[in-house]
Amino acid sequence: MSEPMLTAEGLVKRFGSQVVLDGISLAVARGEVVVVIGPSGSGKSTLLRCLTFLEEPDAGHVAVGRRSVSAGPHTREETGVIRQLRQSTGFVFQSFNLFPHMTALQNVMEGPITVLGLSAAAARERGMALLVKVGLREKAAVYPAFLSGGQQQRVAIARALAMEPQAILFDEPTSALDPELVGEVLQVMKALAQEGMTMLIVSHEMGFAREVADRVIMMDGGVIVEEGTPEQIFAHPREERTRRFLNTILTRSMESAQGGSPPCE
Amino acid sequence: MELALSSLHLLIAASAVTIGLAVAAMAIGLVIGLLAAITRVGKVPVLEQFVRGYVSLIRGTPLLVQLFMIYYGLPQLGLPLEPIPSGIIALSLNVGAYLSESFRAAILSVPKGQYEAGLSLGMSYWTVMRRIIIPQSIRTALPTIGNSFISLLKDTSLVSVITVTELLRATTLVIARTFQPLTLYAEAALIYWLLSSGFSLLQERIERRVSRHV
């Protein structure tokens, strides 16, 4: 494994008396695609949010490239480092969170203009190129409210890419989508993976994980239960908890495939 | 009828003062209200407490008393002000306090995900406020801003008591010469009503314009 692009050491996060992250450490190498799976409430999303300090960890340490920050309270200087760290780490949300008062193109241009200080012309050029890349050239002037969920999520990916990040974190990027729109988003993500983007993805899309991931991490109870190649995790899981989780997922997707009772969330 | 027509131009001229007072006070009030709301939402130390006191004081006392404090009270502190500036200051401070509450509610109604999306791009809190949150809040606050303006337009009549010749005082002056209160007050009421209706229409058009993307 080459030098890690993204590292977390001993991350702890508590909500009240509940321990959501129980001292998690992980490293993602440059160009590596890591998919995090696990039952809901296992701390997957919190892990991603702590990595960019959208959620303040109670203890631990995060590093992206050469920038590193420890859990707060933060000095003014550290707050600046956190900002740089976020700038170099794209974040794609489950609920897209596009800016509703801006067109698709303006959404993509916003970061480059306000954070990177690009001229409007340069940002527009970069934004258009990225919209073309995610297949939404003709939607540039459209407001998010008039885009489908899949289109919104692709704009959100373009928005993250516009910052030229060193890594992108995806927090259940397809969970809020209608089933028929999942494919278009996964396709964009797959293309990114093939280009060598460093990606850490929380997802329930096992087919996608099997196909695209270099490594799969199984989380439960705020710790990493097991990790390995997709082959190891899906075909030969060592841990009972992993097996049980994969079984539920499998049963659920088979039920929906047979047109049986819809999968409950 | 003749009287109504002959006094009309006087009253219309005075309405210009009424509109001027309302527009000036609204412009200043919007700035005060927005800054006050940001101070409170952003929890700016010290200033936040100050703003809290200001809003509570304005909302808890009659506008007429606020007007007298500024026009009759400030000269005692060596700050004599002309009637029109006094009126504009009192009205601005008053409407600003109410607007700050509207803005605050609107800012708080923007979903958390919008802050997170801005922060995740590497924006500072204040950049997120300026570029993402405030523009969305203004749209949400527009209906209440419109209501505040209509109230303000009518509240300008209070300024007549400190000798500003706006619509109401002009009417009273004509009545003093003609002894026809019913006709003239009715005429004044009609003008206030037309102005309010006109601004309501304008408000609707603005609202439609800014919500074209939702």
Structural description of this entry:
The complex is a heterodimer of chains A (265) and B (214). Chain A is α/β, with parallel strands linked by helices and 265 residues long. Helices cover 40% and strands 25% of the residues of chain A. Chain A is built from 9 helices and 10 strands. Residues 260-265 of chain A have low confidence and may be disordered. Chain B is mainly α and 214 residues long. Chain B has one domain: MetI-like fold (Orthogonal Bundle), CATH 1.10.3720. The interface between A and B is medium-sized, with 27 and 20 residues.
Feature tags:
heterodimer, A: 265 residues, alpha/beta, six-stranded mixed sheet, four-stranded antiparallel sheet, 40% helix, 25% strand, disordered C terminus, B: 214 residues, mainly alpha, MetI-like fold, 8 helices
Q: Report the C-alpha radius of gyration of chain B, rounded.
A: 20 Å
Which band does the percent of strand residues of chain B land in?
Answer: under 5%
Q: How do the strands of the widest beta sheet of chain A line up side by side?
A: 6-7-8-3-9-10
CATH superfamily of chain B: MetI-like
Fraction of helical residues of chain B: over 70%
Poorly predicted regions of chain B are none
Broad shape of chain A: globular
The H-and-E topology of chain A, N to C, reads as EEEHEEHEHHHEHEHEEHH
Distance between the termini of chain B: 50 Å
How would you sum up the major sheet of chain A? 6 strands, mixed
Structural class of chain B: mainly alpha
- Strand percentage of chain A lies at 15-25%
Task: Quickly name the level 1 CATH class of chain B.
Answer: Mainly Alpha
What is the multimeric organization of the chains shown? heterodimer
Question: What does the largest sheet of chain B look like?
Answer: none
The amount of helix of chain A comes to 25-40%
Please provide the count of β strands of chain B: 0
